[in-house]
Structure formats: C-alpha cells, structure tokens
TrEMBL record:
Region feature (Disordered): 384-417, 472-491
First-listed, main subcellular location of the protein, grouped into a coarse class: nucleus
Keyword Electron transport: no
Family from the record: Belongs to the histone deacetylase family. HD Type 1 subfamily.
Amino acid composition bias (Acidic residues), ranges on this chain: 397-417
Protein name in UniProt: Histone deacetylase
Cellular localization per UniProt: Nucleus
Amino acid sequence: MDTGSNSLPSAPDGVKRKVCYFYDPEVGNYYYGQGHPMKPHRIRMTHALLAHYGLLQHMQVHKPFPARDRDLCRFHADDYVAFLRSITPETQQDHLRQLKRFNVGEDCPVFDGLYSFCQTYAGGSVGGAVKLNHDQCDIAVNWAGGLHHAKKCEASGFCYVNDIVLAILELLKQHERVLYVDIDIHHGDGVEEAFYTTDRVMTVSFHKFGDYFPGTGDVRDIGYGKGKYYSLNVPLDDGIDDESYHFLFKPIIGKVMEVFRPGAVVLQCGADSLSGDRLGCFNLSIRGHAECVKYMRSFNVPLLLLGGGGYTIRNVARCWCYETGVALGIEVDDKMPQHEYYEYFGPDYTLHVAPSNMENKNSRHLLEEIQSKLLENLSRLQHAPSVQFQERPPDSDLGEAEEDHDGDETWDPDSDMDVDVERELVPSKVKKEIVEPQLNGLDDQRRSGEHLRVSDTAVAETCMKALDISSQKADEDNVKVEQNTVNDLTK
C-alpha cells in the first residue's frame, strides 16, 4: 500500500510508457438523436485513426467490462441508476415526472441503449483506474469517458453517469491523494461538487466562464471545510490561444504537483476547447491542447486520460489520436493515412489544423491576476495531507470482456486482467450514425446553469462510504455548508 506520491521511476519525457487503451467497438453506434451535438461516433473515428497510424500495436488494447449497478451506485443514487436502467424511448412518456426529476430530456435525451452506453464508458474509466492501481500500466486511456457534468442524482450537459468520479474513487483505494485536471471548455462541475469537502482529491478546471454552461467555476470557488483550497478554478474568456493557456496551465499545475503530491492524476481532455469547435469559443491548436497531456506525462505519475466534450468530430478524432501518440511518446505524421473515415478530413487530409484569427479576450493583465490568485491559494497548503488507512477496500470487479479484434488491433497476451466469461452484455437496440449533420443554428450552450450545490451533503457522505475508511470520521462541520457561505463565494 503506497503512502506517498507513488511516482513512476524518473525518466526523460521521451521515454516510452506502458499504455493501456480501452475501446468497445459498439460505442460508436449509440446515437443521441438527430441534431444533437454529442456524437459517440467520434470515438470510432478516433479508433480508426489509431489503427491506421499503427498506434494500437504499441498499447495493450482492452474492451471495457461494463460497469454494473453496484459499481455505478458507489457514487450515484440507487433510484437514479434504476431509472437509467429501465427507461426507454418507448416508455418515457409514462415517466414524465421522473424525467424532470432526473433532468433527462432535451440536453440528455433518452435513446436506445442508453444504460448500456453508460455501463460501457464508465467501465472503461474504472477499468483504467484498476490497471493503474495494480501497476499494470503507466498511462490508461478511455476516450469514451470524461463525462464530467453528471451529478449524484441527475444527468447534466450530455452526461448521465460520472465515470470520472467513479474512477477517482477507485484510485483512492490505492492512493492517498488524487489530482483531477480538466481542460474541457466547460467547467468540471460534477467532479468538483463530488469532492468539494475533501482534501484527498484536488480538482483543477480550466474553462470558459461567464454566461456559459454550466455557469459555475468562479475563481473564488475554492472548496469547503477540509476541502478548502483543494478546488481550483481557472475562469477564461473567448479566444484564448496556446501561449495564453500555457501561461496559466504550467505554473499552476507545476505548483499543484509540488504542493499536493498526488499518487495518481486524472486528466479530462475535452476537445471542445479546440479552435473551431461547434459549441466552443476557445482558439487552442491540437498541439497546444496536447501540450497539457505532455506536461502531465512528464511528472511520471500514474495517469488516466479521458475524453469529454468535443463537437466538431473530425477535430476531436484528430486531437485524441495525436494525444494517444503523446502518451506513447510517438510523434505521428501530419499527413493522414487512408482509412474508412478519410473523407471527413478533407480538403487537407492532415492531422493538424491551424487556429483561427479570432480575438483573444484574455488580456495579459487578467491572466496575471488569475495566476497570482491561484498560486496564492496554493501557497496556503503547507504540505500534502495525510490519511490513515485501516483497511483497503476491495478492487472493483471489472475484468474485460475479450473483444473480437481485427488485424489492426493488438491484444497483449500477457494481460492478466480476469475475464468474466459468464457475464454477457444485454443486447440493446442502437441506431447507427454514419454521417455528421451539417451545422444548422444549433444552441451554442450559452445557458445559465444551476450553481454548484456544495450543500448536498449526500455527495460527500457517499464518497466517504464508498472509500470505507472506518478509521476516518467525517466532521459534521466540514460537510454542513450554510447557504450564506455559498452566497459569499459566488458574489
């Protein structure tokens, strides 16, 4: 049982890492509905690029074992999970009250195979955490995961199950401290809320702030009780470019790694922060986005890479393909190889795309103020917190179901993750999406969101129970939050 930072052996950044990659061939078939910007098909496009660039042969390729009810209920409420399992497009009109209660409808529609989709993407993230906990890889990748808006009892922002929280809970079985970093354009509100009152998880989110979904993530939102200063929010404005982004990212994350000393890192790589995203308003290049992955990799700490947002799907596939190469320490060619989705990438058929000439509304003065404020907050953490373990909770029972892999994929024969051959996926109807609909005046997601509900003590209690740390009692003062405090933080 590790009690320190559990860093990998120090090595130059160019040294190869052992990478586990989770992918289910069915994930691209799930379809949110006509005109909906979230398209799981992008995961299949990413996988095709990885195959034809020859990257799969450098990784262990695993089909995720679907998460079960009890796995999802380590964070989510039982009745919410039961609802997701039972609701179908044919029956939803009979459950209007529950649809409203669980925020399922417009942004988070009911579609064929919804629950199987949740089981698949959550299974990949938790499976990656299990692999890292057992030192079976240095970096685990699940591009289908990273759905950071889902809450304990409700869906939000295209997200139904919060696979990130579930993966972090799994990592906390082995590591005293886990760092969560979010480079999606939207605030990682669901993850922050889940760990807002604990010092064992630090959350750092870089996001667009101000009249933008979900409306949370002010620089003054810093955590509460034992979790005070363990939530960091980096609010950004339209048009931020690579240089401005890294002016904040590297000093802040560098200080976080120095002060917090995490045993493992989870990096949510939402690609809607790229230039030209259908719902986004940032101006990052693929190389600029991937520089965050490269920087986190350089610390030689067990790393879980997850997907997230990203709505111009050809650029999402480009980005996550390139970042897989970064994880492996392999520079991939800009010229794209021929593959089944080649026509999506015309007219240039290259991996990289140039940023636009949009205005950067983030002034150097504003960036310096944000950096100074966050570094000041970090300076208040004198040393990394320590946690006394009495007994380590058992690992989640998530073996992988062996996939029918083709000649382009490589299955590592030395992989020793157990396979539960008695359990099979329940067949579900899914609609297959082939093409990306054209842009057509879609909602740009500029909606006011419900503010972070740090007073939801059930979230903190759920995490404490899931960790099963019987020697550590929750201090009532640290989980009861008065509304006045919330109001003060948001003024």
